Amino acid sequence: MDKNLAGDSTPRPKWRKVAYGGMQIGYNDNYTDETFLGEMVMNANVVRRDLLKVMKDSVSISQYLCIVALVVLVWVHTLESSLDENSLLLLDLSLLALGFLVLLLTEEKMLLLRYIANVSFFTTGLYVLAPVYQTLTRSISSDSIWAVTVSLLLLHLFLHDYSGSTIRAPGALKSPSLTSCISVNASVVASVFVASRLPSRRHVFAVMLFSLQVFLFAPPVTYCIKKFSFGLHLLFSFGLIGLTLYSVYALHILFFVLFLVIVVVVNVVCPYWLIRMQEYKFEISGPWDEAKLCFDITD
User: Fold this and answer.
1) Is residue 63 a contact partner of residue 263, using CB atoms and an 8 Å limit?
2) Cα 75 to Cα 31, 69, 96, distances in angstroms
3) pLDDT of 286 above 80
4) Is the pTM of this model over 0.85?
5) Helix (DSSP H) and strand (DSSP E) numbers for the chain
6) SS3 for 41?
7) C-beta of residue 12 within 8 angstroms of C-beta of residue 26
8) d(CA 83, CA 298)
9) What tens digit of pLDDT does each residue of 107-144 get?
């Protein structure tokens, strides 16, 4: 009897925080002591953003919106026969030379050599396939073509990678994502649909060359400009926005107002909303979180 009483009065061993070792005598498996909530941290990984910095970063989105808008304007003027194939071919050569000059000045010589080979390859392929593109959608109504083209352009803008190049540059850490590849393919198919409504083979070749130059090679070129000098990137972007607004205004005042609203929303309203939403972000971290590796497992 005395031994039992003595056994009951034995104090419990102190609880220890261990990952392995089984259950501790006298404690439940899910037991936590009073220090458990003392290690809780709130908003440890929340990034505090500056409004001006977010607005500068959003310029890249407006820049690409302007590029796509200028492509659509060239399509419209070509379909209306206000831009002939000779002028369009001259524009193609000018853009090609300008892009190569940018790559050369930004010291991207390896990228330049790679793109020269790629441009030579697909230029030859486009010229050979131009008659096929011209008759590709002859049996489809024009209304269906324009509806699908608009849908593909919206898909292209929605899935486009605005953070960098959609084509992997030499030395890049990762390849383009699946959504970026889908975005590029959507723009190419939209270009084919537009080119199939043109009257001559040279028109088709000129429009396809122009469209592929812009959709495939404009993102790497603008990325190189941004990497070389952020100030030059901003100057180029604002100049492109001004040129696009002027060109859209010359087309129609309603389109000008719509595009101006989009630019203001992207560059001012959305960054302001993002900063305001940061005030309501609430994240808690503590000992209940999964362990995170502090090294790169690929090393």
Assistant:
1) no
2) 69, 10, 18
3) no
4) no
5) 11, 2
6) strand
7) yes
8) 53
9) 656 666 777 777 888 888 888 988 888 888 888 888 89
User: How far is the C-alpha of 278 from the C-alpha of 285, rounded, in Å?
Assistant: 17
DSSP letter for each residue of 151-167: HHHHHHHHH--TTS-SS
Consecutive H or E run containing 196: none
Backbone angles phi, psi at 29, to 5 degrees: -65, -30
The DSSP element (H or E) to which 209 belongs, if any, is helix 201-212
Nearest one of 173, 195, 59, 72 to 126, comparing CA atoms: 195
Helix H or strand E segment including 42: strand 41-42
Closest CA to 39 of 295, 288, 299: 288
Q: The tokens of 248 are what? A: 């859209």
**What does the DSSP assignment read for 213-268?**
IIIIIHHHHHHHHHHH-HHHHHHHHHHHHHHHHHHHHHH-HHHHHHHHHHHHIIII
In angstroms, the Cα distances linking 234 to 55, 97, 186, 231, 269 are 11, 22, 28, 5, 19
For residue 285, the cross-strand partners are 41
Give me the residues paired with residue 42 across strands.
284
The pLDDT tens digits of the residues spanning 147-162 come to: 999 999 999 999 998 8
